[in-house]
Design a protein that fits this description.
Layout lengths: L1 H27 L3 E7 L4 H18 L3 E7 L3 H14 L10 E4 L2 E4 H18 L11 H27 L4 H6 L2 H24 L15 H22 L11 H5 L5 E2 L3 E2 H21 L2 H33 L4 H22 L2 H8 L1
Parallel strand pairs: 1-2
Antiparallel strand pairs: 1-3, 3-4, 5-6
Amino acid sequence: MKYALKALLICLLVLISFNTMASVSHAQEPVVRAVLFYSTNCPHCLEVINEVLPALDKQYGTQLQIFGINTSTGEGSRLYEAAVKAFEIPEEKLGVPTLIVDDHILVGSNQIPEQLPTIVEEGLASGGIDWPYFPGLEEEMEAAEQRAQESEEEETENGFENKEDQTVLERFKSDLLGNIVSTIVLLGMIGVVLMVGITYHQKNFLSNPPDQSWLIPVISLLGIAVASYLSYVEITRTDAVCGPVGHCNTVQQSPYAFLFGFLPVGVVGIAGYLAIAAAWLVLKIGSPTWKETAKIALWGFSLIGVLFSIYLTFLEPFVIGASCSWCLSSAVLITILFIVATREFKTSAAYHRHISK
């Protein structure tokens, strides 16, 4: 069992390192943001959209963000007039395509590709460029985000409907590396539970275990942090910061991220880790009678947690077809808690009464 604990700790460190590196990289990345006014009836606009911007997107990725506004619509025309007034654009520069980045006003299919790359390079070197400000832009961006979210949810639902027609192997291959990792974690959790079950009746099972109860509050706090982040992602439906392994957002946007269709799994995780931490606290400062009860509760909560995590981890590679490194981190954490709680329960009076029968 001690080797299983060491293996799980190593696995946990690897998963946390992946997520930490991804979070740091995401937080430190400078971004240049710009607004493009265009019209669907303008050939020069289509040239910029179809030829110029894709090349820049390939070069800069998420470091270049361009928000498009269609002036062919009433709202788009109103926003264009607001931008003209806010930036005092002269009459000779009126027209589309117009791209506003910082205090630069680029107009036409020649000026935009000629000057934008230099502006982007200078902006990234100076730490990034925020969205230009003019009345109505913020509200339009919020409305566009809402429309995109609704469209994404519809696509996600359709995507899961299509996955129902796929074989298990096809789902597994859709996130091959992540699903391999999740399968390894799944087999490890099942192995730990089977090992405990098989050796439970042996009198020398975990005999003279070292005191590792200090791990319980530490691991519980880590678990609460991970579950809180997942709850935030699930409740706000924002994109998670993922490491190089797995497709976190596919998992978090799936129907399986909510119990009974409304309860975020992350919130369930927070409650579970809090219950384990509370049982440990009673174990340390409670009366002798309550300490025995706390040991049983501690082991019971961790057992329920690891069984629930086995179910969730099984869903990732074989049903959803994608794996989440944050979820796998939580699965490893609860398995470590189960091992330590089993050691604690082994020293309880209830355990000894059961073994002596």
